[in-house]
Design brief:
Elements lengths: L1 E4 L6 H4 L1 E4 L9 E11 L1 H8 L15 E9 L11 E4 L14 E5 L3 E3 L6 H6 L2 H11 L8 E5 L4 H12 L3 E6 L2 H10 L3 E4 L5 H8 L5 E4 L2 H10 L6 E4 L11 H7 L2 E4 L7 H16 L8 E5 L3 H9 L5 E5 L2
Parallel strand pairs: 8-9, 8-11, 9-10, 11-12, 12-13, 14-15
Antiparallel strand pairs: 1-2, 3-4, 3-6, 3-15, 4-5, 5-7
Helix pairs in contact: 2-11, 4-5, 4-10
Amino acid sequence: MKAALFERHGPAADVLRVTDVETPEPGPGEVRVRMRLSGINPTDWKSRAGHTPRPMDGFQIPHLDGAGVIDAVGAGVDARRIGQRVWVWMAAAGRRWGTAAQWSVLPSRHAVPLPDGVSDELGACLGVPAMTAHRCLVADGSVSGKSVLVAGGAGAVGHFAIELAKFFGARVATTVSGPQKAELARKAGADLVVNYRETDAADKLRAFAPTMDRIVELALGANLELDLAVCGSSTNIVDYAAEPTDPVLPVRKCMNANVTIRFVLLYTVPADVMDQAVTDISAALAAGALTELPVTRFPLDEVAAAQDAVEAGAVGKVVLDIP
C-alpha cells in the first residue's frame, strides 16, 4: 500500500516520505480500514518533530484521526462490520499504523460507525478534537444548565466544545481574536462571542454569566487573568494544550477565586471514559448537532506541506486525500 511514514524525528520535509509498505492484516479484536481522509492535529506534527517523542517500531505512519470504510476484520470481530463507514480515533497511539496511508489497522472500538448523511469530512474532523472537547466539558460533571466559556472557539477543539456543550444543554460563551474566527464560532452555535483583545472582554463575559461553571482553555498562561475575572467557587478551568513556556500561577488569586484547574491529555485518559466520549459524540452526530470545520485538503504526496500548514496555525481542519 501507499503510505506516508517517518523513521526518525525532525522537520517534516526532512523526515516524512511517501512510499510502498506491506498492507497490514487485522489481528484479533482489530479491524482494517480503507482510509479516505486522514485528519491532522497539532499532536501529529509535534510527535513527528520529536517534541513529544514516543518509541518507534521501525517506522511510524502518522496521524491519529480519519475516515474510511472497514474492509477486513480480525478474530472476534463481527464480520458484519465489513463495508461499514467509520470515523477513526487514536490510530497511531502506541501503534505504527496511523491514518496517513491507504489502510490502517486498529482496535475495533477505535473505528466508530458514521451515521448516514454524515460526511467523510466531518468524520475526519472528529477524533482528537471532539474527544478532547468532551473530556474538558464533562470530566467534572454535567454541564446541563451551566455556563461554559470556550477559549478559542474557532479552533477544532473549541468548535466541538461549543457544539457539544450546546447539545448537553449549556449556555456557551467563547473568545476569539478577530471577525473571521468570530463568524466560525457563531456558526458553531455560541450564544456570545467576545474578542478577547478588547478591553471590555471581561465585562461582556460577566454580563453573560457573573461566574462561569466550566472554562475550556487552550492557553492557560495567556488567558488566566481573563479566566479569573469570570471565576467563582463553582468554576473548573480545564486546560488541554501546553504553551511554549510554562505559566506561573498567581496562587493567591486562584485561592481567592476557589477555582479548580484540571489538565487533559487523551493519551492517558481511562478507556471507559474514552468509550463514553464515543457514545456521546455518536449521539450528537445522529442528532445533527455536530458540523464540520472549514477543510483544507492536501494529497497524500504532500503530507509534509500539510503538517507544516497545521504547525503554522491553519484555520479549520487540514486533511489528506488518500488515493
